[in-house]
Structure to design on (775 residues):
């Protein structure tokens, strides 16, 4: 990526001299043009989104007006002075930004009282923050559960609130983004109650149509600043496909060396050369495993080097996270294997390389992760290591799909009733809902209120709706989609709490017999108590990892829309999915070789969500030469591959969606393939699949047909989580089936639609409510 020329611009005249002095004391001569323009809009009272590249100084664009206003006590209606609220999607980013603002405001003396307020904040500090801090850094979760329900104790802060900073706003997509949108509406409502109308300042390095997305998130008109005037060092980007091994997997399929093993080798080599680097991994377990492998290999050369590599992921205790963050900033750590917790804006200066173990699910995340390297303007290296997966294989052989296409649009649906309902309850507990509030929360509010009354959650008295329960309404929902309290991971011998696992992920990650990694140490899960939300583990040294498998059935509740595809049909609507984890596989660390399968007895879970499905007729099957003996395998293979390819067209991860294929489905009475959203009420993925179905299924057919294997492999039609053990699968049948289906596909309109406007959607890269494809 060649350097970009930029031009300097002077600060707007209204920015105080003290702020200019502080900026210069931090080593910054003057802002780039986009920084000054964004600061000017904010000071004029306009909400603004800064959508420029990674390391382009977005934080300075919003800190300038924030610091300028915090210095001037006359901006607030009380003696406390003006206040500002900063929201980050992760605790690490909030802590990092707090360090930055303290460094930047140090020349200003004690006028800026900044503090982090999150679940890790000691209770003795919280009262001081409520009463005296004028710049509070937190996350949407704490705003939802801690600040808004306790708004009378925050009245002084809210009454003086001048700015709300929403950093890395592109992460607020899909179900999570829809929740955050409603949390921000609740915040605006309470601010109005106290006489404040804060300006929203949003920032994102990777967003399409940023003003539109920011407007939907906040419910306000937002000005866009997207012309990036910052300089940029050269970034060399490598696409790396692991080699085939001599081993064979399920059904004799060839097995590639795992992306985990390749990434661990790269991290080892970079560390030995003294190059500071981060390896991004899609799962918590993967981060732990890569750090363990790298440490073992480094120890064979130099034991001191092994101590300079570590893992960083969610689920650690607060003191563990803070220690790792300090070691990373000080340079004590040379290499880090991390989940996307470090993808977002954390200032890791001096990185020479980034290794990405597996496509992270969206182009937005890919560029965010790659942008961590070379943040001080120097050249850098980024390497995408492909997993043995249809999408990863497709991308390394079609680089234009990465480098010649823009980042995905951000979509959220605040009107999703599964999202809106609990926030209406929370808002009613905070302050009784009135008819004047209906417009703020969206058009679906009026229809939902009678349902909440019927469920005896709300009660209407005169002109307002009141919360009726003793329980806290904010506890009705986990905005990250967890669906229950986290499962505590406890060491049996000592009773020590190792960390937590999201409730929705417990069935797949801490089931009995699962291998659990924590801080480079390996544990085996001895029992999982779902009622008490506790998993008991003990130290062990297995030579394998574990992968859970599940089965899924699906029923159609309502068909919203359907269009002919030749003799078949493509449909979109509401479905109910029943999912059950039934077993787990043991796989060798490095090779991925399957060592065995163990049955599990876990309760089924149901999900009402949105799905896209397509059917084929007997005539189409006859033309494709597909008889009853291969029909199930052809449908199953097409289902697996289409799930693997959908993240290229909808901003989702393979694990955010699921699928079912049936030779004769009772609701359609035809051979049918379903792909559904893995979140209650839907998240926009299936809708996007419906609108881009021709392009999506064409790419799916191409990925299967171009794979070099004979009968199917993980690079085309095999799924790592298939509840039926990838049986039956028929590769050539899937190609013929998709060929005859696509012959009748309508032509998509410009923008990737087939008869309607398309949308995108996404969620966090490791959401707790994930589902997976089944047989």
């Amino acid at each position: 990526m060649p350097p970009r020329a930029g031009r300097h611009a002077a600060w707007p005249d209204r920015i105080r001299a003290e702020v200019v002095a502080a900026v210069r004391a931090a080593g910054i001569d003057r802002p780039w043009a986009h920084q000054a323009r964004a600061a000017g809009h904010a000071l004029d009272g306009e909400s603004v989104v800064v959508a420029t590249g990674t390391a382009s100084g977005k934080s300075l664009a919003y800190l300038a007006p924030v610091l300028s206003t915090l210095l001037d006590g006359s901006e607030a209606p009380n003696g406390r002075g003006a206040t500002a609220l900063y929201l980050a999607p992760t605790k690490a980013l909030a802590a990092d930004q707090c360090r930055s603002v303290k460094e930047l405001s140090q020349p200003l003396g004690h006028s800026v009282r900044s503090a982090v307020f999150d679940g890790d904040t000691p209770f003795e500090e919280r009262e001081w923050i409520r009463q005296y801090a004028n710049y509070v850094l937190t996350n949407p979760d704490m705003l939802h559960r801690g600040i808004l329900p306790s708004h009378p104790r925050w009245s002084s802060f809210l009454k003086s609130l001048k700015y709300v900073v929403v950093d890395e706003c592109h992460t607020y997509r899909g179900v999570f983004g829809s929740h955050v949108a409603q949390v921000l509406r609740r915040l605006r409502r309470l601010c109005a109650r106290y006489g404040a109308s804060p300006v929203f300042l949003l920032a994102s390095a990777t967003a399409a149509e940023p003003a539109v997305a920011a407007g939907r998130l906040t419910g306000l008109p937002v000005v866009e600043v997207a012309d990036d005037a910052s300089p940029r060092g050269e970034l060399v980007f490598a696409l790396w496909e692991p080699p085939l091994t001599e081993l064979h997997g399920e059904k004799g399929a060839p097995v590639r060396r795992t992306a985990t093993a390749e990434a661990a080798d790269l991290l080892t080599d970079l560390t030995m050369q003294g190059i500071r680097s981060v390896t991004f991994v899609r799962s918590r377990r993967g981060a732990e495993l890569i750090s363990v492998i790298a440490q073992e290999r480094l120890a064979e050369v130099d034991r001191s080097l092994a101590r300079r590599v570590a893992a960083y992921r969610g689920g650690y205790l607060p003191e563990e996270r803070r220690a790792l963050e300090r070691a990373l900033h000080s340079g004590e750590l040379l290499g880090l294997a991390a989940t996307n917790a470090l993808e977002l804006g954390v200032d890791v200066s001096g990185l020479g390389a980034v290794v990405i173990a597996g496509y992270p699910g969206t182009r937005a995340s890919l560029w965010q992760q790659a942008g961590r390297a070379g943040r001080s303007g120097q050249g850098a290296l980024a390497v995408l290591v492909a997993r043995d997966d249809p999408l990863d294989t497709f991308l390394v052989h079609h680089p234009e799909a990465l480098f010649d296409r823009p980042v995905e649009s951000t979509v959220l649906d605040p009107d999703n009733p599964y999202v809106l309902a609990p926030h209406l309850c929370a808002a009613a507990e905070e302050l009784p809902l009135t008819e004047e509030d209906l417009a703020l929360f969206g058009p679906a509010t009026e229809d939902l209120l009678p349902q909440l009354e019927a469920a005896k959650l709300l009660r209407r008295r005169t002109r307002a709706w009141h919360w009726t329960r003793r329980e806290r309404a904010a506890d009705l929902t986990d905005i990250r989609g967890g669906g229950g309290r986290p499962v505590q991971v406890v060491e049996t011998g000592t009773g020590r709490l190792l960390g937590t696992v999201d409730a929705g992920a417990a069935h797949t990650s801490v089931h009995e017999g699962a291998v659990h990694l924590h801080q480079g140490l390996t544990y085996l899960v001895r029992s999982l108590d779902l009622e008490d939300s506790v998993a008991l583990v003990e130290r062990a040294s297995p030579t394998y990892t574990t992968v859970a498998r599940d089965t899924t059935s699906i029923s159609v509740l309502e068909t919203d829309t359907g269009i002919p595809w030749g003799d078949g049909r493509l449909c979109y609507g509401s479905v109910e999915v029943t999912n059950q984890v039934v077993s787990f596989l043991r796989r060798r660390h490095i090779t991925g070789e399957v060592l065995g399968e163990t049955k599990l007895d876990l309760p089924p879970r149901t999900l009402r969500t949105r799905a896209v499905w397509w059917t084929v007729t007997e005539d189409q099957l006859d033309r494709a030469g597909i008889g009853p003996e291969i029909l199930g395998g052809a449908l199953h293979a097409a289902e697996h591959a289409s799930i693997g390819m959908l993240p290229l067209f909808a901003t989702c991860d393979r694990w955010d969606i699921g699928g079912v294929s049936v030779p004769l489905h009772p609701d359609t009475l035809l051979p049918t393939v379903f792909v559904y959203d893995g979140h209650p009420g839907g998240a926009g993925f299936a809708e996007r699949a419906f609108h881009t179905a021709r392009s999506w299924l064409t790419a799916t057919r191409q990925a299967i047909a171009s794979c070099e294997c004979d009968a199917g492999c993980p690079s085309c039609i095999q799924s790592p989580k298939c509840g039926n053990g990838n049986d039956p699968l028929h590769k050539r049948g899937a190609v013929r089936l998709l060929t005859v289906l696509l012959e009748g596909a309508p032509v998509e309109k410009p923008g990737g639609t087939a008869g309607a406007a398309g949308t995108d959607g996404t969620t966090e890269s490791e959401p707790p409510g994930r589902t997976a494809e089944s047989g």
About this structure: The longest helix spans residues 174-193. Residues 438 and 445 are 6 Å apart (CA to CA). The mean pLDDT is 84.
